[in-house]
């Protein structure tokens, strides 16, 4: 274990075994997380005096470790993962009370719909431009509307096993920044080109425009709405801050930088939220 208390995945090293062995010499409660950014924000929110953090490396490995520990009857841990757009977390959560996904699709989405998200817009946007657009609440509604077609495509991709690689498409470049409109046809064309299993841009456009619907719309059991991937929202926010509601240079508000700022601002929200209180309850801790 490093000085920061985190663990990284090692080849041929089962995380569940390491957690159980560590517990023999350290009686702190355990939080299994996907990666380093998850550990950093949770450590800022809940500290390290009573909780030790284990990085799994991927969501799948985190869920595997949680499943194994639960089967061994271990009750001192919580597993924090992104819900994403598939049904894997729901399936594991039905039989594992230690699973505690972030609200919405992922950490950044959970924070984006919180006060931390509106604070980010207020801090990085132009006061005059925000006022001209009707205020932050109106801007947020606009951004929510823009991200929904992408969320629908993400769910359709899961349901139909198309294998689309969303992260290979530069979403910011597919936005009309002056009017803040998603350029659906160019976006779907680019997205279609990322997989041989794509049904073609025409079908993708129908999902994006709502002419076709997914079988089961993604949703958050805790009621966080609208449901979207945080990085998609932040890419749209990046475009907005470069003209629509701000005067920033694209390099200064790229999605990764915005995600870092959101996580830095979000620890207080995690600690004080109902989600944070439930996390402490799962591992038998109080505020």
State the helical fraction: 40-55%
Rounded to an integer in angstroms, the radius of gyration calculated over CA atoms is 20 Å
Total domains: 2
H and E order? HEHEHEHHHHHEEHHHHH
- In terms of per-residue confidence, which ranges show pLDDT below 50 for 5 or more consecutive residues? 1-5, 7-12
Care to count the β-strands?
A: 5
What is the strand content? 5-15%
Shape, please? Answer: globular
* Main sheet properties: 3 strands, parallel
Please tell me about this protein's structure.
The chain has 287 residues and is mainly alpha-helical. The chain folds into 2 domains: 15-101, Rossmann fold (3-Layer(aba) Sandwich); 108-266, no CATH class. It contains 13 helices and 5 strands. The protein has helices at 15-23, 36-46, 59-71, 88-93, 107-112, 115-124, 127-132, 136-160, 184-192, 201-209, 230-244, 255-272, 274-282; strands at 29-33, 51-55, 77-80, 175-176, 181-182. The strands form 2 sheets. It has a 3-stranded parallel beta sheet with strand order 2-1-3, sandwiched between helices. A two-stranded antiparallel ribbon has the order 4-5. The longest helix is centred in the middle third of the chain and has 25 residues, at 136-160. The radius of gyration is 20 Å and the shape is globular.
Layout of helices and strands, plus pairs?
Layout: H1 15-23, E1 29-33, H2 36-46, E2 51-55, H3 59-71, E3 77-80, H4 88-93, H5 107-112, H6 115-124, H7 127-132, H8 136-160, E4 175-176, E5 181-182, H9 184-192, H10 201-209, H11 230-244, H12 255-272, H13 274-282
Parallel strand pairs: 1-2, 1-3
Antiparallel strand pairs: 4-5
